[in-house]
Here is the input.
Amino acid sequence: MKSHPQTGARILEPIKEYKIVIPMVLQHHERFDGNGYPEGLSGESISFGARILAVADCFDAMISDRPYRKGLPLERVVEIMKAESGRQFDPIVVEALLDEIDKKAPKAA
Here is the structure.
């Protein structure tokens, strides 16, 4: 499991059009606090694209139904994203996601 970022990057390497996304694939399991993998990068040393991909990937993994479990309710996913902001995730990216969720939330009359 922990080798899939490197495997994904190697698969993309021969395709010149994907050169720009290779750092995103390679670094999307790094954590903002430096406790991720494969290299233990932290903060802005992680490419901005990878920080966005990490948030999007985790959001999708939590909210989506899987063959082995139901997706979490949006409210719970938002709680987790907020709790991991600044730890697992870039706070700026989490804030942008939460702003988009707020924009799409039904407004009370």
User: Anything to note?
Assistant: Residues 48-63 form the longest helix (16 residues). Helices lie at 4-12, 22-27, 48-63, 74-84, 91-104. The chain has a mean pLDDT of 94. The chain has one domain: 4-104.
